[in-house]
Amino acid sequence: MERPTSLQAQAPSLTRKDFVSDQDVRWCPGCGDYAILAQVQKVMPELGIPKENIVFVSGIGCSSRFPYYMNTYGFHSIHGRAPGIATGIKASNPALSVWVITGDGDGLSIGGNHLIHALRRNVDLKIILFNNRIYGLTKGQYSPTSEFGKKTKSTPMGSIDNPIHPLCVALAAEATFVARSVDRHTEHLAATIERAARHQGSAFVEVFQNCNIFNDGAFDAFLEKPVRDDRTVVLAHGKPLIFGKERDKGIRLRGTELEVVQIGEGINEADLLVHNEHADSPNLAYMIARMEYPGYPVPLGVLRDVRKPTYEALLEGQIRTAVQRSGEGSLEALLNTGETWLID
């Protein structure tokens, strides 16, 4: 069977309803997962990809029920192993649009190794990591992203683990697309998901997602409306890093450190760091991702978007070269060639 050469070949006209499955959504009322699901279903028709060419793969956790709710192909797989399974799907049929849905527990604890290698290989996967900084499905234990000192059922005296920063992990693995959005910022979330979908290569999107049962308000300190403008900075390619209710604060590079400055006190926009999401080196993007210390705004938006050959394209090239050199080959001949033994 020949593989399709284009995801959009003979794509029908679809609407959001076409991507809504017949399954009852079984998340807690008020969970941020609903907003993420709604935006993914909203974006899908805009891509022009037939439903039968789309696959959602998940691991274990609240977020991992996602494939049930998408009227596409799906795979509710093994704890932490979704990136590995998705890699196999993409390598077997590169024409498919393959998505990985994971959480801060599933993707960054037992699945951390699989996530890192999918990103470093630049497999053309769209990975959405729901980060609620808690284990929700298992009822409120601390997770790899829980803040230091977090009191939970499994850390009654406070966590003594330093939290993992998902964006930093993705950038360190050289992911070619790295972004962050928020469940409640629906327009920003939809735009971020669409950009990830259209990226050729590994696309990693962290979404701050509220667990209103076990970690309600985890992000209120910087996302609540009264403080949001002063505590977050929205990244835009080619634009200086400016934030604040009065748009009077900025970020500049001073030596090897980022510094928060007040605009107008001997400093103007020309002095600020201009965001370049297309920079080949992830160094500055990594520095921006680390802006979660007191006094720094939390970055939202696309941190990195670069183009490199994808894993499956390189793999296909090797297969073509091997076939040209040695012919189509035979599985039967392969199994009966080389060091074989006959056991009486």
Structural commentary:
The protein has twelve helices and eleven strands. By secondary structure, it is α/β, with parallel strands linked by helices. The protein has a domain at 16-218 and 309-318: Rossmann fold, CATH 3.40.50.970. An eight-stranded mixed β-sheet has the order 2-1-3-4-6-5-11-7, sandwiched between helices. The protein has a three-stranded antiparallel β-sheet with strand order 8-9-10. It is globular, with a radius of gyration of 22 Å.
Number of DSSP helices?
12
Count of individual beta strands: 11
- In CATH terms, the superfamily of the domain at 16-218 and 309-318 is Thiamin diphosphate (ThDP)-binding fold, Pyr/PP domains
In N-to-C order, the SSE pattern is HEHEHEHHEHEHEHHEEEEHEHH
State the name of the first-level CATH class of the domain at 16-218 and 309-318: Alpha Beta
Helix/strand class: alpha/beta
Percentage of residues in DSSP E strands: 15-25%
- The poorly predicted ranges are 1-5
CATH architecture of the domain at 16-218 and 309-318: 3-Layer(aba) Sandwich
Mean residue pLDDT = 94
Strand numbers in spatial order across the main sheet: 2-1-3-4-6-5-11-7
- What is the CA-based Rg, rounded? 22 Å
Global shape: globular
- Euclidean distance between termini CA atoms: 39 Å
Give a concise summary.
It is built from 12 helices and 11 strands.
List the helices and strands and how they pair.
Elements: H1 33-43, E1 54-58, H2 66-69, E2 73-76, H3 82-92, E3 97-103, H4 104-110, H5 112-120, E4 125-131, H6 166-172, E5 177-182, H7 186-198, E6 203-208, H8 220-223, H9 225-231, E7 232-234, E8 242-243, E9 249-254, E10 257-262, H10 283-289, E11 298-305, H11 311-326, H12 331-335
Parallel strand pairs: 1-2, 1-3, 3-4, 4-6, 5-6, 7-11
Antiparallel strand pairs: 5-11, 8-9, 9-10
Helix pairs in contact: 1-7, 3-5, 4-5, 6-10
